[in-house]
# Entry
Amino acid sequence: MINYPNGKKTKSKLHELKKKVNNKSNLGQSLENDVNASNAYYLINNLALVHKKPTPITVVNVDFPKRAAAKITEAYYQLPSTTDYNGIVRGIPIDFEAKQTKNKTRLSLSLIHSHQLKHLKSVLNHGGYSFLIIRFVFHSETYLLPYQLIHEYISDNDKKSIPYTWIRENGYLIPEKLLIPCDYLSVLNLLLFKGA
Amino acid sequence: MINYPNGKKTKSKLHELKKKVNNKSNLGQSLENDVNASNAYYLINNLALVHKKPTPITVVNVDFPKRAAAKITEAYYQLPSTTDYNGIVRGIPIDFEAKQTKNKTRLSLSLIHSHQLKHLKSVLNHGGYSFLIIRFVFHSETYLLPYQLIHEYISDNDKKSIPYTWIRENGYLIPEKLLIPCDYLSVLNLLLFKGA
# Structure
């Protein structure tokens, strides 16, 4: 009976699973999954056309095995030069970055690269609508923050983070729905089309 | 004097270089380079905000050497689900695919994936402007083809390719300029803003 799992092993497996569920990278993905699921709903129902851009990767080496698909054997992640998401809502170009934080009291701006903030500013200058989607995991709340607001806050305060209380007062709470787990479009409809 | 290069070796190196310059993949990149250079010019001069999306890659295995950047050791190219380029021109969302062909008489539609054509159609339906940029290498000519035109041609003819003569008559020749090697924006300005 050597291979039969004992209580200890089971406990350790459960512990591992718990760790997996609670770790940072998985938490980072849950907002991404919610946004992607919402985008899929919008696409199918012809409400908006929003896609996540692929992660930029520098390919160094590729193998071509006989009659088979190319296999990349050496590559590295690049720093993104733009944001993760862009698309169209009723003729208006939109562009945003989605981030979540475990921090209870503030959003560290180090989570967003400076060239991403610069890109959001460019989108605004070229007539598009740009924003951040921020999830506070501890509070189970997700906010839409128009770039204009962030720009004003950073210019006025020259800070490296934005307090949760400021975001709660100035941002827009995004509703969670069964089929649209991060329904940011309902907020955009209010902001861009007065709910029409 | 064994290692000194002889005439034969030099000739073979020249031959290799010639092959490299003439081969298909390099030809494929020259239009991409021209579009990228034009986009860089538009960006710097605040004329338009257009970016090439990263190539979608499925990462299977990543190594984390000590204190060094993550190294991807196994990955594969994915079929793109959208087009290569999108952006904003004076508040209007634009979306396009750029392709070149060595064929003298026709553009094979097999160069453009069916889900890319579907995506161009969605862009149009959501209020954006979508098109193809097609370079005929033999004729040294590059055309902008609004998606609407392609859609009508395919619907009417149910063909697998579009003749060069049809594109020459119905498409818009894109001017080549020193700093803007593929100046598609000058065509868009005429189409979208009547040259204003």
